[in-house]
Amino acid sequence: MSRTAAEIAAQPACWRRAAEAAAVFEGLPQPGERVAVTGCGTSWFMALAYAALREAAGQGETDAFASSEFPRGRSYDRVIAITRSGTTTEVLDLLAALKGAVPVLALTADPKTPVMEAADAVAVLDWADEESVVQTRFATTALAFLRAGLGPVPGVKPVAEAAVDAELALTEPLPEAAATAEQWTFLGRGWTYGLALEAGLKMREAAGAWTEAYPAMEYRHGPISITGPGRVTWVFGPVPEGLAADVARVGGTLVAHGAADPLADLIRAQRLAVALAESRGFDPDRPRNLTRSVILS
């Protein structure tokens, strides 16, 4: 088993621990605060998911930005930065610019990095850290932590139930059509759009796969043109009305696990990325052209 696969398998336990940690953590956004969430790569996609979840919970306006694109002239009550390594240049540059102007909460896996001094409060999720370059369990654990801190969200399962679904996602066989496809398009709505983006990224990082990701209702506004035999359309969460018929009409294969928590369904995409990488002779623990953290000179 690759190290990445072992880290993927650890996610249900990590999520449960994250929910426990969030219940006693001081420093999470308060209802009514205007919040911005930021990160790079996978962390940015988790930021997008959390921002949509927080607004769905009715807790206040919440934006998400890649750290390099953060609108520094905007006013926020709190900023959340997600950074596994705690060393990413764009994140640290942003936090330096925000220092003293707005309270910053950072989520990190390493308490011995510069982000500890750059942020006003830090949630250290070091028990979810990873050896693999490809992020899996830290990212989903960070989202589980923030999600649990919201309390009940309409139409979204509690983190404890998501962990149960995650255990099933780890043991069920992967969809055969997804494992043998030549192209994959991931779709989501609301908070699951961030998960769709992350699924596509995992497939590209680990296996060099041709993947795309879109808001589900945008799929018929162009992206459906690449769908056909040997190509998969994977939906996180409920499938929009009529979409399954549209995929079938053009010869594509629809993959959806509507009853499962979408974060648990992301585990299936992570497993698929590892399986595809190994089938292509790639090492999922050491993806091409990537490092654990982007540190710019």
The rough form would be described as: globular
Provide the structure class: alpha/beta
Largest sheet, in brief, is:
5 strands, parallel
Number of helices: 11
The run of helices and strands is: HHEHEEHEHEHHHEHEEHEH
Low-confidence stretches: none
Rg, Cα atoms, Å? 18 Å
- Strand tally is 9
Mean pLDDT over all positions: 96
Give the oligomeric state of the chains in this entry, treating copies of one chain as homo and distinct chains as hetero. Answer: single chain
Which percent bin holds the helix content?
40-55%
For the termini, the CA-CA separation is 35 Å
Q: In order across it, which strands form the biggest sheet?
A: 2-1-3-4-5
**Beta-strand residue percentage:** 15-25%
List its traits.
single chain; four-stranded parallel beta sheet; 297 residues; 11 helices; alpha/beta
Protein model, in words:
By secondary structure, the chain is an alpha/beta fold. It is 41% helix and 15% strand. Helix 7 runs parallel beside helix 11. It starts with a helix and ends in an 18-residue tail after the last helix.
Topology:
Layout: H1 3-9, H2 11-24, E1 35-39, H3 42-56, E2 62-66, E3 78-82, H4 89-98, E4 104-108, H5 115-118, E5 121-124, H6 137-149, H7 159-171, H8 176-179, E6 183-188, H9 192-207, E7 211-215, E8 231-236, H10 243-249, E9 253-256, H11 262-279
Parallel strand pairs: 1-2, 1-3, 3-4, 4-5, 6-7, 6-8, 8-9
Helix pairs in contact: 2-6, 2-7, 3-6, 3-9, 7-11, 9-11
